[in-house]
Design a protein that fits this description.
Elements (H helix, E strand, L loop, with lengths): L11 H10 L5 E8 L4 H6 L3 H9 L1 E6 L14 H10 L3 H4 L16 H8 L5 E5 L3 H6 L14 E3 L16 H21 L3 E6 L1 H9 L3 H28 L2 E7 L17 H4 E6 L6 H4 L3 E2 L3 H9 L5 H4 L13 E7 L6 E6 L5 E7 L13 E7 L3 E3 L2 H4 L4 E6 L4 E6 L4
Parallel strand pairs: 1-5, 1-6, 2-8, 3-4, 3-5
Antiparallel strand pairs: 2-7, 6-7, 9-10, 10-13, 11-12, 11-14, 14-15
This protein binds zinc ion.
Length: about 425
């Protein structure tokens, strides 16, 4: 991976202008999760295909794991990370804490559900080396997901031990990844679905087995070529059909230094991820390396111009990585009975509104009423009234012109 600073800032205005003429184009999204590749390894190994995508958009380091030591702390475990991407929320909300995926809270919709609810005709697809991604995380055909149905799926080969006998060197996973990527590239080119998830696993297997090693390097080069075939399909669609394609490639977690084998904890190297995209109007949150796993869903919503109900928008833990943003990184500081709300103001000329809700009915499928506390300058700090400060649990929402940010006091009620 060659490190680039993303799109030259001087061209942002120009891109904004041509964005208007692109309004009529069909918007298509494909996101690819390459399992467990540390940013340091990706940057060291030669990855010409990812470089090519980054040259048209950007590459940046990013993070997962929620806020360490706080209510949103989220294990740096695979399925947990996928679900943070899928729902735009951390584990305290989506409730997937391990690869067992015991009780996902489907009240937090996945990007697939958001798209299908808004546009029932939208075509969706998944190509995956792990079947649970579709059956458990997306919850296909479950009453709790409104019987979400994907239009195309290819997965489950890891449980077909006749065709793919399991070997100690995990060559069967490598073979499955090859098939998944090949079929994804073919389908994308011929059918051009509106939303596609591709999941490839072999890099994680090599990481667990060998850590930082020639085997891991080889796995990264392999997966780079697989991404290349998908990128090629998209480029052909763009030329042939004039569609507007967004590709987002990322990993689900880093690995524990110095060996680069384990993950799951909150060390910097386990929390560190990266993102590669062809997006044309990446903002500073992405370019400066502050993006997180939960920012990807709001980015897709903005790319699609999808309108989301307020009650769902208020729960999203991420911020769009394209276009303008008003506020970021809210947190509560101070003594339990004298809480101060602080945040990062990005446009100080704006006013922001601060709301609070004493309940968390949303997580059980209900509705929370948000009460206006104040309209204030976007200065980055606000002292909460004592009557609210002293409560054990509440949700706060800061609403700016371009985005909102939520922060909670206390865990689940
Ligand atoms: Zn993983």
């Amino acid at each position: 991976m060659v490190k680039t600073l993303g799109f030259p800032l001087c061209l942002l205005g120009f891109v904004y202008l041509i964005g208007f003429s692109a309004l009529a184009q069909e918007k298509k999204v494909v996101f690819i999760i390459l399992d467990g590749i540390p940013a340091s390894e990706l940057e060291r190994v030669d990855t010409p295909n990812l470089d090519q995508i980054a040259e048209t958009g950007g590459y940046a380091r990013a993070y997962t794991g929620g806020k360490a030591g706080d209510y949103s702390e989220t294990p740096t475990i695979s399925a947990v990370g996928y679900n943070s991407l899928l729902t735009g929320t951390w584990a305290n909300k989506h409730n997937v804490w391990g690869n067992g995926i015991e009780a996902p809270n489907y009240n937090y919709w996945t990007i697939f559900r958001f798209l299908k609810e808004a546009r029932p005709d939208a075509q969706t697809a998944i190509f995956s080396t792990w079947q649970d991604n579709r059956t458990k995380l997306l919850g296909e055909n479950l009453p709790q997901t409104g019987y979400l149905k994907l239009d195309k799926s290819l997965d489950g080969m890891e449980i077909d031990t006749l065709t793919y006998p399991h070997d100690e060197g995990h060559l069967y996973i490598r073979a499955i990844d090859e098939k998944v990527a090949r079929e994804a590239a073919n389908y994308l080119e011929t059918s051009g679905p509106d939303l596609t998830w591709v999941y490839l696993q072999y890099t994680d297997d090599m990481g667990h087995k060998f850590g930082k090693s020639p085997e891991m390097d080889e796995a990264i080069r392999l997966v780079d070529a697989q991404v290349g075939s998908i990128w090629e399909s998209i480029r052909r669609r763009k030329v042939e059909f004039g569609e507007d394609w967004l590709i987002w490639v990322t990993t689900d977690h880093g690995r524990k230094d110095p060996e680069g084998k384990d993950h799951g904890g909150q060390s910097i190297s386990e929390r560190e991820t990266w993102m590669v995209t062809n997006a044309q109007n990446l903002n500073d949150r992405f370019l400066l390396g502050n993006a997180s796993m939960v920012d990807i869903l709001p980015t897709f919503l903005r790319f699609y111009n999808l309108v989301v109900s307020e009650k769902r928008e208020y729960e999203l833990d991420g911020i769009p990585l394209i276009g303008e943003i008003s506020i970021a990184d809210a947190e509560l500081i101070g003594k339990p009975k004298k809480q101060k709300l602080i945040w990062k103001p990005l446009d100080k000329s704006e006013k922001v509104s601060i709301y609070w809700s004493p309940t968390d009915n949303f997580s059980a499928g209900g509705f929370d009423e948000y009460i206006l506390l104040a309209n204030v300058e976007n200065s980055g700090s606000f002292d909460l009234p004592k009557s609210i400060s002293k409560k054990k649990f509440f949700k706060l929402l800061i609403q700016g012109e371009w985005n909102e940010v939520n922060v909670w006091k206390g865990g689940k009620k």
